[in-house]
Amino acid sequence: MNQPRHNIGQELPVIRQLDDAAANRIAAGEVIERPASAIKELVENAIDADATRIEVDYAGGGKTLIRVTDDGYGIAADQLSLALSRHATSKIDGSDLLNIHTFGFRGEALPSMGAVGRLTITSRARGADAAAMISVSGGETAPVRPAALAKGTVVELRDLFHATPARLKFLRTDRSESMAIADVIKRLAMAEPYVGFTLRDVSDGGQGRVVFRADPCSGDLFDALHARLRSILGKEFAENSVLIDAEREGHTLTGYASLPTYSRGASVAQYMFVNGRPVRDKLLLGALRGAYSDFLSRDRHPAVALFIECEPERVDVNVHPAKAEVRFRDPGLVRGLLVSGLRHALAGAGHRASTTVADATLGAFCPQSTPHAPVYQMDRPSQRAIHAANQFQQPGFGEAVVGYSGRVEQPVGVSDIELGAEEASLTEANPLGAARAQVHENYIIAQTQDGIVIVDQHAAHERLVYEQLKSQMAENTVRAQALLIPEIIELSPSDHALLSTSIEELSRFGLVIEDFGGTAVAVRETPAILGEINATKMVQDILDELTDLSQTQTVKDKLEEILSRVACHGSIRSGRIMRGEEMNALLRQMEATPHSGQCNHGRPTYVELKLADIERLFGRT
């Protein structure tokens, strides 16, 4: 048990002014948390100095050496001593602390590093005849002296935390600290595609080992950003992401976001920036989850690199010591921009699915070979494809596919579908080609102009039904079909209470439920688009979804998740034999429906294999 802080009769504590050395060491505890934090501050200073190339060397995970070299405009010799003073900065004048246009602006980083390590700054200002150098160790500053440097600035920090050895005990292994350094550099490189970055580990001396390199990119902003993301996040992300470009009331959202079928098992590939500053902000991450909630299961995460830009007065970047979080003046507007911008871009991708799906399929065929490079992305549907799908949406298609309840035909084989001019036309005119066969009563095989497509009929149709339900709900035109005999369902008291709170919302998409006495309910109408369904099973599934959501979300907020569960009940089932015209109608509707490349849980609805890849499987090329 702790003893009382003060005994009766003890003298009152005296308030003292801390000296600069103590104040700087305290600041270092907030600003310089680890080697990666120091590198972040130094590289941001280099970017603010208009550097076009930045080199970072480190040793011992950054504990023994950090060196940042840039070709920026430098620091004048008579300003070097001031640069090491606390709260001295060239980036703001102090009159408006919200009008921030630069990275570092508080003037704490350099004096903090000098207070806990051995810091040397060598710089040659643009237009200066010579360079100058200043050193500080443990808070003790040496005089400015001449130095040799062609241009820019070199900041060298050795023996980080030597003046506060207790802090060293909290650092991780050299490998962990090195990984943190690489992550910082990669994030800054994403934000500055026109700047070149080189990261080297010089622990073994000499020239060191290049850990990361990104040459300056050229072209317009989107081309430069795409090229930079390709070099950092990889070819697969670059080929399986969509461009984001949205604006709302003075806020812009740009960047790239992955297709739902290119998702990760953790949120390790989510990069968010506000006015060029890398952030890990709860508001933005929550909005990202909301934007993808319609396409991914809860255990899958998208890969994104997103940039929000707004006037500096609309966001406070100084709410976190390391500036990793921000506070927006209008958080609701920003969240809405992010959700709507992402969903609009994903809808524009049409039925496109990740190329990695085909890559994994080919890899399964050849487990001993090296993975094939992804070579294909679906184009957006042509006007002809959309017109064809609209034709299939006329009366007849609904009965044939969406709400199919007719008699089962004989199995369809390759020879059962006419391979004439009409089929050849379908193959050439449509991205998903012409249906050739159904195998294992679940997979449609279609021939495209230069390959084949394999479609999971249940997963694909589940997505189509879901999108139609959403569209009808948005227009308040969900048609319901009355049951000849209402279906009576006995519920537990808890399930009855939970369902009763949601009856009004459920009626919005054509599911009409009424109390039937006690804890029983009567299902009187179901959504017409679902055709003949097992109402009891659907209500049980809805209850499962409500149970998952009830703790944190209202039914109204998460109605789409319930719709997703409901759509499964109106889908073409695995094991149901389809006629040729039904299969082609399904393909055409997929081409014209946004998000049809993945099911409601983010899994692919089809795989496309290029003819060249198939020929390689058989050793023909």
Task: Provide the fold topology.
Elements: H1 20-31, H2 35-48, E1 53-59, E2 65-70, H3 80-83, H4 109-116, E3 118-124, E4 131-137, E5 140-141, E6 145-147, E7 152-158, H5 165-168, H6 174-191, E8 196-201, E9 209-214, H7 221-233, H8 235-239, E10 241-248, E11 251-258, E12 263-264, E13 270-274, E14 277-279, H9 282-292, E15 301-302, E16 304-309, E17 315-316, E18 327-328, H10 331-348, H11 355-365, H12 383-392, H13 397-402, H14 421-429, E19 434-439, E20 443-448, E21 451-456, H15 457-474, E22 480-490, H16 493-500, H17 503-506, E23 512-515, E24 520-527, H18 535-549, H19 559-567, H20 580-592, E25 606-610, H21 611-617
Parallel strand pairs: 1-8, 13-16
Antiparallel strand pairs: 1-2, 2-7, 3-4, 3-7, 4-5, 4-6, 8-9, 10-11, 11-16, 12-15, 13-14, 17-18, 19-20, 20-21, 21-25, 22-24, 23-24
Helix pairs in contact: 1-4, 2-6, 6-7, 9-10, 12-20, 15-19, 15-20, 18-19
